[in-house]
């Protein structure tokens, strides 16, 4: 990061800074929560204060902001000043993105870095699109659930475009890890917002099939269950009437040695919204009750009782659900 | 650390430290931090007020804030407030709140040039939270300036920017604006309807909230959303069944998502299929408390999990067996307060400070 060898030469010993008088931090008489600062930190920030107060927008000031960022990337004042310098110097923002690549490689969980990146990409416009999409991909190869990177990627798509391969990319990430909730969320983002697809209702049938397959392979995976529910957002009636959804629940409930929690929970919601259970469904639930429940007792109550047993961590929740079932539920 | 002689315990079968909440050690940990933060925290120097909030409010939850010099704290916090040079400047588009530390505070310099101020919404929230915690009367604070200039930070979509010179906008800063307005008892600095719309747009298909519209549901973002709605008066107190039917957000789905965040090891995760982490015991636990559904969690399992993150040096770590840090320690204490641990102050969840600080006792 610096041209002064392994041990960074103190600024006070660098000839190019000899004309600058550092401005020490005035902490006042009784500072609360003092932080033990390293000499390097203190000196760098003292010089930063000097160039900031002098409003020196020079190449050496730009270099100094890089050193200050390496020490405290959270310092938004330093980043802000860096942007002023870049604008004054009419710097090449592609090079600036190179700089951010390096900073992010050691410390990417920091809001300032991503805000700065967005600032540069926004100025570059469409020519930054593919670079930004590639950059976030690289971040995901190390951490596929990186929150900042996903926010950035969504911003890139909405502001600059590049939707063409996004659904395929989500697919690829889910093939690597079907439990990746961030990839499921991105999938939802794409099918509901991509200008190239027809929107949620157009995509629904094929997405239900895709999701059902994912669920059958891992019924204990919460993410596709939630996604499935999301495909029917604000349209509970279609969810209740969808034959694929019901048959999926049945398949999972009949399977042995798998978690039934999410299937039961989905079924409970369907029943609460008016699903009329078939004999097959009743039998499948009956098979899950350990003791022979009172015959004829309503199915939603039975589902709650099974949930109390198979999901004991939330036993109080399922009991409460049972006590608040709508009266018309069968 | 062996400060008590062997056998001094009244019952040799009493639980070891790892099996109970070690309040005294936590107080010691915070007091050490308060005296001098180690240099690992220098990267957070700009957020010193936030670090101070964790230490002071943490000591308060542990009922040990009296050990601090309150007048010193008050004058230090007030010294970080930004003031416009004159009334006209209130309309200059800047935000006049609190600086996170001296390093973003540049006063008028010799030649009379006023350097633009770097006050920040999160720092302002922390400043007011500290002042309330140490019993400072906020009505004597220059709150007009804060409230009038707060308007400059609200965006057309209802969200807030944390500093006027430009930064990311998301639910965290909607929360800060709501908490600031609530603590100052004055909502003239924000358009609540617009903020509400933004929050509604952040509720995801799964019931949780993402930091921005379209982003993945997240425990921290969900706290910001629900606490803001509560502070702004859009969520009724009481049982979830009461608030569910007429609420502006999908409460049943939110409730189900939040309860599902308690994982098999008893701890809370911030997102589905992610590891559990100390801080979500507060973020998600707090959401459930606000929704009137905290009694649905498995408290015994959570208690056990949190103790695996309790450090032998005092404080809490993010994950079991790691070194403690100030942030996770504060949220560990807050989580134990939610669990109604004896000896801790009850917490006003939606404000992130102890109850008696919130009402000004």
UniProtKB/TrEMBL annotation, chain A:
What cofactor requirement does the entry state?
Mg(2+)
Q: Which InterPro entries match?
A: Prenyl_trans_a (IPR002088)
Please list where the region (Disordered) is annotated: 1-32
Reactions it catalyzes: L-cysteinyl-[protein] + (2E,6E)-farnesyl diphosphate = S-(2E,6E)-farnesyl-L-cysteinyl-[protein] + diphosphate; geranylgeranyl diphosphate + L-cysteinyl-[protein] = S-geranylgeranyl-L-cysteinyl-[protein] + diphosphate
> How is this protein annotated for GO cellular component?
CAAX-protein geranylgeranyltransferase complex; protein farnesyltransferase complex
Family affiliation: Belongs to the protein prenyltransferase subunit alpha family.
UniProt function note: Essential subunit of both the farnesyltransferase and the geranylgeranyltransferase complex. Contributes to the transfer of a farnesyl or geranylgeranyl moiety from farnesyl or geranylgeranyl diphosphate to a cysteine at the fourth position from the C-terminus of several proteins having the C-terminal sequence Cys-aliphatic-aliphatic-X.
The name on file for this protein is Protein farnesyltransferase/geranylgeranyltransferase type-1 subunit alpha
From TrEMBL, chain B:
Q: Which UniProt keywords apply?
A: Magnesium, Metal-binding, Prenyltransferase, Repeat, Transferase, Zinc
EC class, as a word, reads transferase
One GO CC term on file: CAAX-protein geranylgeranyltransferase complex
The record's section on CDD domains has: GGTase-I
Q: What residue stretch is flagged as signal peptide?
A: none
Keyword Transmembrane helix annotated: no
Q: Does the keyword Transferase apply?
A: yes
Cofactors, names only: Mg(2+); Zn(2+)
Which residue spans adopt a coiled-coil conformation according to this UniProt entry? Answer: none
Q: Known EC number(s)?
A: 2.5.1.59
Per UniProt, residues of the Prenyltransferase alpha-alpha toroid domain are 21-351
MF GO annotations? CAAX-protein geranylgeranyltransferase activity; metal ion binding
PANTHER family according to UniProt: GERANYLGERANYL TRANSFERASE TYPE BETA SUBUNIT (PTHR11774), GERANYLGERANYL TRANSFERASE TYPE-1 SUBUNIT BETA (PTHR11774:SF4)
Give the family, as the similarity comment puts it: Belongs to the protein prenyltransferase subunit beta family.
The name under which this protein is listed is: Geranylgeranyl transferase type-1 subunit beta
């Amino acid at each position: 990061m610096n041209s002064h060898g392994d041990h960074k030469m103190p600024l006070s010993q660098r000839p190019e800074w000899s004309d600058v008088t550092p401005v020490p931090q005035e902490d006042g008489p009784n500072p609360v929560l003092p932080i033990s600062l390293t000499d390097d930190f203190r000196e760098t920030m003292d010089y930063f204060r000097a160039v900031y107060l002098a409003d020196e927008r020079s190449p050496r000031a730009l270099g100094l902001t890089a050193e200050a960022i390496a020490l405290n990337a959270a310092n938004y004042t330093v980043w802000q000043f860096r942007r002023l310098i870049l604008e004054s110097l009419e710097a090449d923002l592609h090079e600036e993105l190179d700089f951010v690549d390096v900073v992010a490689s050691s410390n990417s969980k920091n809001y300032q870095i991503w805000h700065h990146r967005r600032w540069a990409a926004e100025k570059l416009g469409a020519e930054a699109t593919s670079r930004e999409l590639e950059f976030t991909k690289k971040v995901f190869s190390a951490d596929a659930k990186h929150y900042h990177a996903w926010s950035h990627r969504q911003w890139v798509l909405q502001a600059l475009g590049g939707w063409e391969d996004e659904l395929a990319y989500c697919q690829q990430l889910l093939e690597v890890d079907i439990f990746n909730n961030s990839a499921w969320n991105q999938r939802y983002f794409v099918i509901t917002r991509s200008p190239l697809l027809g929107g949620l209702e157009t995509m629904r049938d094929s997405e239900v099939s895709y999701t059902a397959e994912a669920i059958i392979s891992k019924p204990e995976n919460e993410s596709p269950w939630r996604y499935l529910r999301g495909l029917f957002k604000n349209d509970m009636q279609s969810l209740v009437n969808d034959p694929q959804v019901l048959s999926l629940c049945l398949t999972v409930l009949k399977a042995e040695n798998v978690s039934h929690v999410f299937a039961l929970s989905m079924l409970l919601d369907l029943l609460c919204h008016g699903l009329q259970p078939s004999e097959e469904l009743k039998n499948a639930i009956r098979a899950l009750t350990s003791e022979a429940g009172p015959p004829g007792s309503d199915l939603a109550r039975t589902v709650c009782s099974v949930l109390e047993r198979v999901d004991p961590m939330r036993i109080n929740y399922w009991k409460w659900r049972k006590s608040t079932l709508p009266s018309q539920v069968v | 650390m062996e400060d008590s002689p062997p056998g001094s315990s009244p019952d040799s079968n009493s639980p070891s430290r790892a099996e109970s909440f070690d309040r005294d050690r936590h107080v010691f940990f915070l007091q050490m931090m308060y005296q001098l933060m180690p240099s690992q925290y220098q990267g957070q120097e700009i957020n010193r007020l936030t670090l101070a909030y964790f230490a002071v409010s943490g000591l308060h939850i542990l009922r040990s804030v009296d050990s601090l010099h309150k007048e010193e704290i008050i004058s230090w916090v007030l010294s970080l407030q930004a003031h416009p040079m004159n009334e006209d400047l209130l309309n200059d588009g800047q935000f006049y709140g609190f600086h996170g530390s001296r390093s973003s505070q540049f006063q008028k310099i010799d030649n009379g040039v006023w350097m633009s101020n770097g006050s920040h919404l999160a720092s302002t929230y922390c400043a007011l939270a500290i002042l309330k915690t140490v019993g400072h009367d906020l009505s004597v604070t220059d709150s007009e300036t804060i409230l009038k200039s707060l308007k400059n930070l609200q965006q057309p979509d209802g969200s807030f920017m944390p500093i006027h010179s430009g930064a990311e906008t998301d639910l965290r800063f909607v929360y800060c604006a709501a908490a600031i307005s609530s603590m100052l008892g004055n909502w003239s600095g924000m358009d609540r309807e617009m903020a509400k719309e933004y929050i509604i747009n952040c509720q995801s298909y799964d019931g949780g909230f993402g930091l921005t519209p379209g982003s993945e549901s997240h425990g921290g973002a969900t706290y910001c959303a629900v606490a803001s709605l509560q502070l702004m008066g859009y969520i009724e107190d009481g049982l979830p069944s009461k608030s569910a039917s007429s609420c502006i957000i999908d409460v049943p789905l939110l409730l189900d998502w939040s309860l599902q965040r308690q994982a098999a090891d008893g701890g809370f995760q911030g997102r589905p299929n992610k590891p559990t982490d100390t801080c979500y015991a507060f973020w998600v636990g707090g959401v459930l408390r606000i929704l009137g559904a905290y009694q649905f969690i498995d408290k015994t399992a959570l208690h056990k999990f949190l103790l695996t993150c309790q450090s032998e040096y005092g404080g809490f770590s993010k994950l079991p067996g790691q070194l403690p840090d100030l942030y996770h320690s504060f949220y560990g204490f807050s989580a134990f307060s939610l669990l109604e641990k004896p000896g801790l102050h009850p917490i006003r969840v939606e404000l992130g400070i102890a109850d008696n600080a919130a009402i000004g006792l």
